[in-house]
Amino acid sequence: MAKHGYLKEFTKGIVKENPVLCLVLGTCPTLAVTTSASNAIGMGVAATAVLICSNAVISALRKVIPDKVRIPAYITIIAGFVTIVQMLVKAFAPAINDSLGIFLPLIVVNCIILGRAEMFAGKNPVLPSILDGLGMGVGFTAALLCMGIIRELLGSGSVFGVQLLPFKILIFILPPGGFFVFGMLIMLANKLNTRAGREVKTTPCDGCPMAANCSQKAEKCGEKEAAEHVD
Amino acid sequence: MLIKSLVAVFLAAILTENYVLCKFLGICPFLGVSKKLNTAFGMSVAVTFVMVLATAVTFPIYTYVLVPAGIEYLQTVLFILIIAGLVQLVEIILKKYIPSLYKSLGIYLPLITTNCAVLGVTMLVLQKVDSTTLYDYTYLHALINAFGAGIGFMVAMVMFAGVRGRLESADIPKSLKGLPITLVSAALTALSFLGFAGVVDKLIPLS
Question: Is 60 exceeded by the pLDDT of residue B86?
Fold first, then answer.
């Protein structure tokens, strides 16, 4: 693979195949932890670390893991790294541990990570897999940060704890605000994608890690108009 | 007192602590499988079943194995493996002995392993054991909580399937079509659940 090929593995996750806004994966943490910009960064970095490590290991073991038990094997590898990250965060950034709460261990079922393992790391050599993980992680963090900044600015009038607005619209840091801001961002991403002449992904099963053993596939993925995805 | 606290736990899990609309767990199936009422219902039944089963297994393992041995940090790895194994087991048993049930629920089972609501229920309940002070949070409370969480998931799914049914015939701006309008309507559904805040404490005063 040429040099620009490696670069492409890295950059595709940030814009063209942004895991949150284009592939619509990992919606739960995206909605739950983006009540402030610093939470968003914490979650993004933790998930990126897990993503890079699990991609590297899974791709190194791709010829050893039998095809039939690959999903349980991937989950075990991912869970191992999540535990390590959890312990590191608890030791060095206890404040982030408190604010992320349950969503830190739940990185294990974040479909971006299993999705990249299934789609990319299980089929490609180690170096591209690491770059793919890094790119996807940065894309995830960027989308989270984007949502975090919007929600914190409108919901508590501040960004990274610095007060900027004299008013606050509390609803934006409550659950409904999360859904609303996420909907608006996806609308924007769809619009930009259409304008750039790129096809908007309407069959979500492209990025879904469970697509291979999803028996609803025929029924669901035949429908073109709705961009939806099953965890 | 016991019955009262059980009812409080059950109602709280459905209304004030709704896993989908208040805690953002299990959003993917909430958005993905809520298009038709019958699939939404089937998915919720399967999720409820696995939630109760998973809590029934993980809660004693955590309290009687992990805590005495001082290896609580293995929680994440162990719980996800237990849930994955349980889902497989249930699938095999249903396929073999109750094929009619397998036909209606079986298709949702593989999707449940990576459903964060199931893992979330088993983990959050352990935090409640430490933080509940008004009464003893027992195994029974944990099971009722899991059942309530499943029913709460069902309420959210069925409600949302109704909302989406109305969207089908609505005239939606082009760029909002598909996921964006679904998320906006999810926001409005979540808004309605905000109204339940505090209702359980007022209905069933425990102190």
Answer: yes
Nearest chain A residue to B84 by CA distance is A72
The strand pairing partners of A162, in sequence order, are A159
Tokens of B32: 């993905």
Q: What is the pLDDT of residues A27-65, one digit of tens each?
A: 888 888 888 888 899 999 999 999 999 999 999 998 888
Residues 6+ apart with CB under 8 A from B155: B14, B18
Q: Which of B164, B161, B51 is nearest to B112 (CA)?
A: B51
Helix residue spans in chain A (DSSP H):
3-12, 27-32, 37-60, 70-92, 94-100, 111-116, 126-156, 175-195, 217-221
- The residue whose two tokens read 């760029």 is B175
CA A6 to chain B, closest CA, distance in angstroms equals 30
Average pLDDT over every residue of B100-119:
77
- 3-state secondary structure (DSSP) of residue A125: coil
Q: Note the pLDDT tens digit of each residue in A98-138.
A: 888 888 888 888 888 888 888 888 888 999 999 999 999 99
For range B2-6, the mean pLDDT: 85
Q: Tokens 């109602």 label which residue?
A: B11
How far apart (Å, rounded) are the C-alpha atoms in residues A219 and B203? 44
- Share the mean pLDDT of chain A: 81
- For chain B, the maximum distance between any two Cα atoms, rounded to a whole number of angstroms, is 60
Tokens encoding A118? 């299934």
Question: B73 at the A interface (CB within 8 A)?
Answer: yes
Of B25, B32, B177, the CB nearest to A230: B32
Torsion angles phi and psi, residue A78, rounded to 5: -60, -45
Rounded CA gap, B52 and B10, in Å?
A: 13
CB-CB neighbors (< 8 A) of B194 in chain A: 174-176
Residue B27: the pLDDT is 84
Please count the CA atoms within 13 angstroms of the CA of A30 that sit on its side-chain side.
Answer: 32
CA-CA distance, A161 to A159, in Å (whole number)?
5
pTM: 0.84
Mean pLDDT of A180-200: 83
Q: Which two tokens stand for residue A37?
A: 């910009």
Query: Touching check for B180 and chain A: CB below 8 Å?
Result: yes
> Any idea where the domains of chain A sit in the sequence?
3-221
CA dihedral B115, B118, B120, B126 (to 10 degrees): -160
ipTM (interface pTM): 0.85
Q: Are A9 and A15 in contact (CB under 8 A)?
A: no
